[in-house]
Amino acid sequence: MIRRRLLGVLVAFATLPRMSHSQPAPLKKLLMLDFELIDEQAPEVPFPEAPARLAMISLRLREAFAREALYAVVDRAPVQALIESTNQTQNLLSCNGCEVEIARKAGADRILVGWVQKVSNLILNINIEVRELADGNSVLNKSVDLRGNTDQTWQRGIDFLVRDMVEKHQGNR
To answer: pTM for this one?
Structure first.
């Protein structure tokens, strides 16, 4: 009789949700730059959908990072003019740290740069890199290859990157 009661109590405790006394780390503040396109076929093969698709995946990634609590995405409005003026004179993907300086001015801890490389009309890849502002070093690189050049394939590419980050606990680095 006592054994049954003891067994019942142990089973009840075993099925209770585990409570953690440690608080999760606060989310790092991330400035996300818009995706850029690397397209060596540009003069020969027009790609009029590119600006809309780049904007689409930039927004989709921002929303997913907020939804999944991977980072605290900071508002770009205070530095938008600086982003645009810098982008007119140099590529933010390879400007030797200018993007880090912009992120500091936005009050961020990290910066994300993203680009889509168009290999051909049907083969593309989406890339993201998160950099730490203290030293500009990369803390996360992710890439996904696409087969097909449609809104849907681009959206699925972003969804895969986010899902992979969630599954591998790669957020908030």
So the answer is: 0.83
